[in-house]
Amino acid sequence: MYPWLDPSGRFSVFKLTVFVALLIPGAFLLWPVILEGGATIPVKEAILQSGDWTIRILLITLLITPLRRITRFSKLVQVRRQVGVSAFCYVIIHFALYAISQNLDVVRIASEIVLRIYLTIGFVAVLGLAVLAATSTKSAMRKLGAKWTKLHKIVYPIAILGVVHFFMQSKIDVSEATLMAGLFVTLMLYRFAHWRGWSLRSVTTLLGIAIVAGLSTAGIEYAWYALATGVPADRVASANLEWMWPMRPAWNVFLSGIGMIIVCPFGRDGVGRVLIGNILTSIRFKPQHSRAE
């Protein structure tokens, strides 16, 4: 099925918009590589960017289910496969660019993957995403039956491997990796809340998740600097308690959780959406009184 058609085969502006949005980062990161004919610096930068976009899009895939529960916007399900397959496409670009940087030397690439643990972790994640992409079709769902759902739960360990790979290749500055880790924790907290039967349309639940996720993010960053680097972790901890610009990952994660609280009332059947609808209706059908003569 074409990515701009809905399940009934009709043209969907929503699906087309998502499809184009997913293509844009790839176009921007690959254009300098094409323009420079595969020169070293553009390829190296594109490797980093494609890796960043892989984990971002993978997290967007994991966001779809809780966002649908929060907003009750059922059409989000229609783009879940599209977004998931896009994550696989970006990781293939990431791996292909790495292979180009190694002059397509298969023996060297294989030895690097075996000898460098962060590359081993990344390669396992690539294989996992390949399995998910290959079994994302309707025919695969029919063949696997109940096993399909169990198989696709490997997306969670794949995301963890992706985040760990991100941390290990980031070396000293792990702000972006910490942000991704914090957002992953947030997404898991949404699933935990749903499993516990807590409403994801409750301000109390969403606020609690935002606070716990923010604190967890600060803890992850502290632990990384304390265990893996020579940077004083206490300075990192104190920085997370301060409001500064650019904001620390913990604050970004917390505010993303607050954003869900703001979005919630504007979801389907939400108070905000109903109120706006009533205002627009009253304006549109406001009676016109003629001036008395």
Short summary:
The protein has about 290 residues and is mostly helical. The chain is built from 13 helices and no strands.
Number of helices: 13
SSE topology string:
HHHHHHHHHHHHH
| Uncertain regions spanning at least 5 consecutive residues | none
N-end to C-end Cα span: 64 Å
The quaternary state of the protein chains shown equals single chain
Fraction in helix: over 70%
Arithmetic mean pLDDT: 88
> What shape does the CA trace take?
globular
Strand content: under 5%
**How many strands?**
0
Gyration radius over CA: 22 Å
Largest sheet: none
Q: Which structural category do the helix and sheet elements fall into?
A: mainly alpha
Write the layout of secondary structure elements.
Layout: H1 13-35, H2 40-71, H3 80-101, H4 106-115, H5 117-134, H6 138-144, H7 146-152, H8 155-170, H9 175-195, H10 203-228, H11 233-240, H12 249-263, H13 271-284
Helix pairs in contact: 1-2, 1-3, 2-3, 2-8, 2-9, 3-5, 4-5, 5-8, 8-9, 9-10, 9-12, 10-11, 10-12
How would you describe what is shown here?
With 293 residues, the chain is mainly α. 75% of the residues lie in helices and 0% in strands. It is built from 13 helices and no strands. It has helices spanning 13-35, 40-71, 80-101, 106-115, 117-134, 138-144, 146-152, 155-170, 175-195, 203-228, 233-240, 249-263, 271-284. The radius of gyration is 22 Å and the shape is globular.
Short key terms for the protein model shown above:
293 residues, mainly alpha, 75% helix
